[in-house]
Each structure stands twice: as structure tokens, then as C-alpha cells.
Amino acid sequence: SLLCVFQLLDCPNIVGRGYRILKLLSRYLRSECRVMHRLVLRGLILFCKRPLMAERMQFLLPRLIELLQDADGEVAGMTLSVLRKVLLAKDVPLTSRIALQLAERLRPLFDNDANYVQLLSIHLFRHVMEFVEEVGKKPLKTHVHQSLLPLLCHLHDE
Fold first, then answer.
1. Locate the Maestro/Maestro-like HEAT-repeats domain: which residues (predicted)?
2. CA–CA separation, 7 vs 137, rounded Å?
3. Does residue 41 sit in helix, strand or coil?
4. Which residues contact 157 (CB under 8 A, 6 or more apart)?
């Protein structure tokens, strides 16, 4: 049934049914199987090409943030790509709760073995700092301070 869902992604009028498909994909995203995570994330990356669909993915943020803990560089990289597109598609500032969760999960990815995961996590961290709501900036201060030294080391490595 997941294969049928991916075939639907090519349909031009998918936006009308997109939310139902996203709900279905969110079930598969809860699976413990990394292969399933990769398949669902590939589908979500395709969905993100349509700004309206990327906006509708807001409800997936908590699960996507959890997936950042995955040690698999491919899963982490795809998750970072989806998160970035979803966060940039929305015009509303990030809530402090989501921003704090992201900051906590992004910091360890600065040291990931895969260079593209390091780069994506650093860029997403910057976006989180830019788009957090004004009242949420103060609680993030600690995470930003803890992240400055590793970011400086990565800058020096480059």
C-alpha cells in the first residue's frame, strides 16, 4: 500500500488529497524499520516540493525531530532536508518548544560522520535561531552558547 501512495505523488491534483496521504505516511513514520523511514522520507521530500504540502506537514514536526536521533546518516540527512523545507514553508515563527527540541537534537549532529549531515544540521540550527518567536529566544540562549564552540571548531576544520 505504501507503493500506491508514492505513485499518487505524481498526480497533479494530489494537493486536495494530500493531507489524507500525509496522515497515512505519518503512521509509517512511526515504524521501527529504517527502510520504512527512508521510503517515507523520500515521499515527504517529494511532497515538500509543493509549498502548500510542506505547510501541511507541521503536524509531523515532533516525529521528524525524534528521527534526528537515528544513527543512520541517510535517515538523518533526509529528515534534516524535510524539516528545513517544512520550517521554511511556514510564515509563522517557530514556537519555543519546537525550537528547543530542535536545538537539542541538532547539536549532536554537528559531529556526525557524514559531512552533508553536519552541514544540513548547522544550516537548520541557524534557521531555528532566526525563526523562533521572540519570547522563545531567551530559553534558547543556553543551547546557543553550548553550540558556539562546536560550530567554531567546524568552521576552523573547513
1. 21-158
2. 42
3. helix
4. none
Cβ atoms of residues 18 and 47 within 8 Å: yes
Which residue, chain included where needed, has cell 524499520?
A: 33
Residues 9-64 pLDDT 10s: 555 555 556 677 788 888 888 888 888 888 889 888 988 888 888 888 888 999 99
Q: How far is CA 45 from the centre of its chain?
A: 10
What whole-number distance in Å separates Cα of residue 38 and Cα of residue 34?
6
Architecture of the structural domain at 1-91: Alpha Horseshoe (1.25)
Asked if residue 4 has pLDDT above 70, the reply is no
Q: For position 52, what pLDDT does the model report? A: 82
How many helical (H) and strand (E) elements, i.e. helices and strands, does the chain have? 9, 0
**Domain ranges for the chain:** 1-91, 93-157
